[in-house]
Amino acid sequence: MTIASGVGSMPGTDQQTYDETVKLVLGELPDLPHLPELPGRGVTAGMTGRALAVLSTLGVDLQPAGWRLTDASGVDHRRARSLLAQDLDGLEEQAQGALPTEGGAFKIQVAGPWTLAATVEKPRGDKVLSDHGARRELAQALAEGLRDHVRDVRRRLPQVDRLIVQVDEPAIAAVLGGKVPTASGFGRHRTVHPPEVSDTLGWVLAAITDAGAEPWVHSCAPDVPWQLLRGAGARGLSVDLAVLGAADHDPLAEALEAGETLALGVVPSTDPASSLTDTQVTESVLRWLDMLGLDLDEVGSRLVLTPACGLAGASPQWARRALALVRAAASHLG
């Protein structure tokens, strides 16, 4: 059975909206709801701040140039952790009665080690990406923190059998291609070679697996190394259909044929210029499968339909409509 889910981010700027969004997600995506992210609430709720809230052993603080590693957690790091705990408290309360009493599934998201390395600065400036030891330390702290985070979510949602951790890596292609800007903006950080990228991501994905959860990797950037992600331990891949290039189709088809999950973003992340129906969404998925020579009866149960990445920029009305569209399209696919 094809099911529907969300990528992660949703529109909203306050805690009341967050609570309403949790209720929306639990209601509209019953087969695979996710913990919403509302980056509009501020930097501590953004993708980087959310992941840093999970870190173990490392301190960070918010500087004018962005997040930076520090000897001890600064006030904004503590706020990020507090906000995540508050969100999980709200989820735990609303999940009672909304999730199946047993056998349910749920998804949480976290920025991956390479996206963090390309975003967070070292104590004396410039990105963690520029220092082999620093990026190794950051990845290990993320892996250890995720073990605790998964245990915490499992404690709060004991009825969930299948817990998925989606690792967001929008910067991984830029890291491999030497396209991440230096602090000055005039240069680019050196390319990180594929074996190190795979090994480092693998620590994080292995920690998720060891904690009893299922690791997925999401990226909506061009030139994503899907085979590398699979080799690092990803058991699910998440991508937007609209950004796929010719080189992406075969590795994604191979993942589906190998029994892995593919989450496919099939609904625009912002209000489209013309109306969109669930029938049109369904037909776009069928055309893609037909182009790849895949049989829906064989791979449909491993296919997850989602809106495209970036739903935080949508109107609340479109965000609600997008979730309804992917749910309806998934039901049509059976």
Provide a descriptive summary of the structure in words:
This protein has helices at 15-28, 47-52, 75-95, 113-117, 132-156, 172-176, 194-210, 226-232, 249-257, 278-292, 296-299, 316-333, and strands at 3-4, 59-63, 66-70, 104-111, 160-168, 214-218, 236-240, 261-267, 303-307. It has a seven-stranded parallel β-sheet with strand order 1-9-8-7-6-5-4. It has 334 residues and is an alpha/beta fold. It has a domain at 42-234. The radius of gyration is 19 Å and the shape is globular. Helices cover 44% and strands 15% of the residues. The mean pLDDT is 96. Helix 7 (194-210) packs across helix 8 and helix 10 crosses helix 12. A hairpin with a 2-residue loop joins strand 2 and strand 3. The protein has twelve helices and nine strands. The N and C termini lie close together (5 Å).
Query: Between the first and last Cα atoms, what is the distance in angstroms?
Result: 5 Å
Please indicate the percent range of residues in DSSP E strands (runs of 2 or more): 15-25%
Broad structural category: alpha/beta
CA radius of gyration is 19 Å
Instruction: Pick out the low-confidence regions.
Output: none
User: H/E order of the elements?
Assistant: EHHEEHEHHEHHEHEHEHHEH
Task: Give the overall shape.
Answer: globular
Strand element count: 9
Number of helices: 12
